[in-house]
Amino acid sequence: MNNQFGKDLTTGSIPKHLIQLALPILVGNLVSTGYSIINAIWVGRLLGKDAVGAVAVSFPVFLAMVAICSGATLATSILISKAYGAKDRATIQKIVNNSWAIAIVVILIVTIGGLLLSKTMLRLLGTPEEIMQLATGYLKISVMSFAGLYLSYLISAVLRGIGDTVVPLIFIIISTVINAVLDPLLITGVGSIPRLGLNGAALASLISSGAATILGLIYVKHKYKKEPINPSGFLFERKTIMEILKIGVPSFVQQMLVSMGYAFITIFVVRFSAASIAAFGIANRLDSIVAMPAIAMMMAASTLTAQNIGAGRLERIKGIFKWGIIINIPVIAAISVLCVSFPETIMRIFVDEVDVIQTGIEYLRIVGVGYLFMIIFYVSNGIINGAGKAISIMVISFISLCVIRIPLAGLLSHTSMGIRGIWLAIVISFAVTTIISLWYYFSGRWNKDAIMSKKSKQRQIVAE
């Protein structure tokens, strides 16, 4: 395979590879999250509480769309990484062609279904009638942006599969800049641009995701003109599609479990006070920011693991596990110490209300300690995912959320611990995730297929 085609991660420094892969992913996530906060400010300041409410009730549908995109494209990234490590151009081309075929089918189903069922979904989510029209218009345009969202995820996944996480970051930055410029212009209207209100915010996202997709297609077409990561046609091959679904569907379910877990915890928190709800909303946003470095390391570990399994370099996986944790320690530990030591300072960045701050302080002092578990389980989960064992990750999430976190939060919140019982349940679920993930990693069950495949190839070579 041409050395100019992608980045070979099967040789060289493991910590260097991990940092080079993880850093652009982390920056991209920070850019996207930072802009989502700015976008919320635009909507709140320019359009008021009804618009904020319309966005909020549409958010679960958007999360489901993101889960579909990331689940299916994670499968593509892992399978391409394995084939790239094995230097199997033909398999890469099959994966790419099948992934694009699946993309077209999924985009058509989700877009048509979403447009037809927008109002029905909003009613199921309990949308108040006074904001129903506003929310419906916003959701319909958001559903139309699903095509750009999915394809931009797919292009990034293909590039990540061949070891390139820098170019997808550039696409995210360009898309974010376009969105940032269009948002206020389309919301308020300037010159010949009409005032579109909340629909303008949704339209800005549609245009920016479309622009990122077009740029991605142009880049891949010209940069890798004769390489197999360019689709050469649409292909529905049963074996490849089943491999994609085997990873993609459990990954989608796992992400939906996370969303469901958040919804249930919110229901438990609502019983206490409005201040508790506000504090939990802020704390949940902090959780997502805190997890970003660990998630970036998880994705880097997945790509590195998949390439090395494909190349039969299984001895390097122990190094991925070791160095992933070592690199995570100073970053996550520093964040944990800050959250536990200065919770009031952190909460005051977001709110001034004393009761909200006090609840937030309790959350950060308890859950902040639990952040330390992220040092380990995101790395082990990344390796397991890289081996294509997405079902195992789904089962781990199910046990952590549905067997431990949700029931325990409900139980402890009815004791003298009150809302602190919910925070403790979150930490315990982190610990359970770490224990199960480590047990599965050290059991070696996730690696049996790769070991058998390597032995088979060795026997084949000897026979020849």
TrEMBL record:
Its main location: membrane. The keyword Secreted does not apply. The chain crosses the membrane at residues 21-42, 54-80, 100-118, 138-159, 166-187, 199-220, 262-283, 289-311, 323-343, 363-384, 391-410, 422-442. The keyword Membrane applies. Keywords: Cell membrane, Membrane, Transmembrane, Transmembrane helix, Transport. It comes from the Bacteria. It is found in: Cell membrane. This is MATE family efflux transporter.
